């Protein structure tokens, strides 16, 4: 089976599997317990993983909070910041092409009296910065939080986080980014850019599922960054996320982050080469009967969204399913026509004939050749 659905999830890296193993069987102590070796070893492993994740994100280890994944992190930041700063305002800004874990949370907050602006996007799903500039200058309805996805999970376009952060920092507005799709694919330094909150997930970078992180820059904009916790309880993770830590998953995430940081240049090169080869083979084979929905610049290497004229995407994927794993878009909104492609101005026919091919550093040129053979059939 050729696996080209790496934006949905990635296979676990063998080094990650090996690192996790002992924490499932031998080192099973609760890292919050204090007086015996088992617990101390578990705690040390958690802290080592935190160091690796922090290095990948460009923040301090104590700014990393382990969660169950990016869905939780996105909920945590939007709900937590909205609640914490409700006395300062009720306006939140996001974009029309976020992951459902942002959009549905924003809709929920609307039912609680918050006002949400969904920024328009251009034809490659990038947020409209002029609209954002106008909003931040509008003092009476100055937002308490701006949340913009860094790299889009369906078409791969990167938002200009540097300019967005500059704007938010100048106007003392908190900035959150969903960085789930970009880790291990582009360089991330949330401190240098001035990002206050970041969400991410381990299973998109060859780590285990059910583990992710929220990073919170502690002191920015001249005052202490805070948010109301989503889960209350035993005060783990500095009180931001109660619950016994999932040590084996954290160890796996830490190892995946270590590898992603270590191999970043090599992975970027490999994925760009694979992507270039895939796009030229597709163009050669299908000429005018395909159209690329993804941009070629400022994008995550490895995500190619392509439209096959007059082909039903679900039928195509079913026909290919014995040989190739692909998807029509986000795994989290299967069945519904893509809100991302629709916000980019693609009509329903175009959406129904679009397919997302998402590669990883573990894919090969031979797999692309084999994919083309299956596709032609
Ligand atoms: N945000 C983006 C951009 C994603 O692609 C995903 C997963 O598809 C998520 C959030 C949700 O991540 P998780 O599966 O860790 O909850």
UniProtKB/TrEMBL annotation:
Tell me which residues make up the Aminotransferase class V domain.
2-371
Known catalytic reactions: (sulfur carrier)-H + L-cysteine = (sulfur carrier)-SH + L-alanine
Source species, domain of life: Bacteria
Alphabetical UniProt keywords: Iron, Iron-sulfur, Metal-binding, Pyridoxal phosphate, Transferase
State its cofactor: pyridoxal 5'-phosphate
Per the record, the similarity remark reads: Belongs to the class-V pyridoxal-phosphate-dependent aminotransferase family. NifS/IscS subfamily.
Q: In its UniProt entry, what is this protein called?
A: Cysteine desulfurase family protein
This protein's species is Tumebacillus lacus
Q: What is the lineage of its organism?
A: Bacteria, Bacillati, Bacillota, Bacilli, Bacillales
